Amino acid sequence: MDRWARKRTQGPLGSSNLKVGIFDDNRKTRIPLYGSLKSWVNLGRMSDVPSKGGFSFDLCKRNDMLIQKGLKAPSFLKTGTTIVGLIFMDGVILGADTRATEGPIVADKNCEKIHYMAPNIYCCGAGTAADTEAVTDMVSSQLRLHRYQTGRDSRVITALTLLKKHLFSYQGHVSAALVLGGVDITGPHLHTIYPHGSTDTLPFATMGSGSLAAMSVFEAKYKEGLTRDEGIKLVAEAICSGIFNDLGSGSNVDICVITKGNKEYLRNYMEPNPRTYVSSKGYSFTKKTEVLRTKITPLMERVEITEVGEAMEE
């Protein structure tokens, strides 16, 4: 496609309109372009730029140009989490922090980010809390129906396929980044699932805003054949690294150990940030505070219904 095709047509009100498109020499057809004439001209100028090797920043320049011309860029939601997982000699260990944020506000200090999928499969969620809970609950119910139908334990690859197909269909607009782990008849499995549906299969994985800090711990200290205690210690250290180096992660450390035929959920396994001072008296208003008005609104009232008149004949 190296030539521009231009054609003048008569508009509905008799005005002359200019249709612009790219002429495909192979198909001998004109591919129309839609938008304002100024955008067409700018696109034509961009097409004159010779192609280079490496990463192309054309779209970045285009976005900056559109923002300067008054286009409102789509907003995004800043989320924070550190979730990790690794494979040890007997199974899989998952870990997560417990901080939930609403922008700069800590909404929940002790939320659960390790979600139940099946008796032998669990999933850590990063991103929007509502999305991660809804997606994992939906797939968990589908796995339960599959177990009822087949009479067999769920496989990790089944959960992975259901999750990635659902997320891919929404093209990343469902903000759920997941670390899926479990042990089935084929052995231990660990996968990462990105919000747009891309997946990885790894011996150790991290996701969330604190993933870089956690990954630095894994890359330095992970080795094959870890024991249960060594794996738990390494996962806790990776989560703590995310907690202390990422503002979006914090509070406590949750760990889930999955082995063949057994799982162990260690809720609040570690509390690296304990509250140093807690007032025993709590908060009370001063005695000088003047009460301006007192109003009691009953939430429920008893209503008596009295039937008047005779019943209607059938």
Automatic annotation (TrEMBL):
Which keywords label this protein?
Answer: Cytoplasm, Hydrolase, Nucleus, Protease, Proteasome, Threonine protease
Query: Where in or outside the cell?
Result: Cytoplasm; Nucleus
The UniProt GO MF terms for this protein read: threonine-type endopeptidase activity
Would you kindly state one Gene Ontology biological process term found in this protein's UniProt entry?
A: proteolysis involved in protein catabolic process
Q: In its keyword annotation, does this UniProt entry include Ubl conjugation? A: no
Question: Which Pfam families does its entry note?
Answer: Proteasome
GO-annotated cellular components: cytoplasm; nucleus; proteasome core complex
Q: Which reaction does it catalyse?
A: Cleavage of peptide bonds with very broad specificity
According to its UniProt record, where is this protein mainly located? cytoplasm
- The answer to keyword Hydrolase applying to this record is yes
- Gene3D superfamilies from the entry? Glutamine Phosphoribosylpyrophosphate, subunit 1, domain 1 (3.60.20.10)
Question: Which family is annotated?
Answer: Belongs to the peptidase T1B family.
Check the record and name the PANTHER family matching this protein.
METALLOPROTEASE TLDD (PTHR32194), PROTEASOME SUBUNIT BETA TYPE-7 (PTHR32194:SF4)
Q: What does this protein do?
A: The proteasome is a multicatalytic proteinase complex which is characterized by its ability to cleave peptides with Arg, Phe, Tyr, Leu, and Glu adjacent to the leaving group at neutral or slightly basic pH. The proteasome has an ATP-dependent proteolytic activity.
Q: How does it assemble?
A: Component of the 20S core complex of the 26S proteasome. The 26S proteasome is composed of a core protease (CP), known as the 20S proteasome, capped at one or both ends by the 19S regulatory particle (RP/PA700). The 20S proteasome core is composed of 28 subunits that are arranged in four stacked rings, resulting in a barrel-shaped structure. The two end rings are each formed by seven alpha subunits, and the two central rings are each formed by seven beta subunits. The catalytic chamber with the active sites is on the inside of the barrel.
This protein's name: Proteasome subunit beta
